[in-house]
Every structure is written in C-alpha cells, then in structure tokens.
Amino acid sequence: MQPSPVRATDTLANERTYLAYVRTAIAFIGFGFVIARFSLFVREMSIIAHVDPGQAGAISTVFGSIMAAFGVLLGVVGGYRYATTDRALREGRVLSLPPALAYAGSIVIAAAGVIVALSISGIR
Q1: Is pLDDT of 60 > 60?
Q2: Which of 17, 66, 95, 103 is the most buried (most CB within 10 A)?
C-alpha cells in the first residue's frame, strides 16, 4: 500500500494541536506558581490579622507544585504527540489519541477540580 502524500492541512492541524498543548502547559505552570505563592499571601495576612494560618499555606504550596509539575509533564506529552503524529502523517497513517491517555487526563483534571473545590469550601 502506497502512503498518501502529506497534506498541508493535516500538518498545520498537528502544529495547532501542539501549540494548544504548549499553551495549556504554560497555563498550568503559571497557575501552579500563583497557587504556590498564595501561601505567602496567607502567611502575611495571618500576621496582620493576628490569626493562625493553619495548614492553608502548606496545602497551597503542595498543590501549586503539583500543578506546575503537571504542566511540565503536559508539555512533554504534547511534544511526544506532535512527533508521533507527524511521523504517522508522513507514513500515510492516521494516529488517534489512545483512550487510556484521554481517561488519565480526565481523571487528573477532575481530581484537581475536587481538590480546589474542597479547599475553597474549607472541608478537610
């Protein structure tokens, strides 16, 4: 079977997808930094208000670090997906996202949402 020629639309769509991965990775890293630095804000406000900050600072530092690490991982996955999809396009194959990777990403996002919701509501 002869591989089909690579179309410009397919290559450009692959590049747009890669750029979406990069934007999302940068957003996760940036938000992770902001969340981790929120502990500094909590600490300073507790000094001003003369209250005990409790574990709020430690939770935001850990969660922010995890979000930043997830952003780095997402950037690596995006680069890998771009390279494998580009190779498949040049070989005339169609490469789809493995369902396990889609499920894993959904679970991570859902877990992050639950953690944020619980920390906002004050449930421990």
Answers
A1: yes
A2: 66
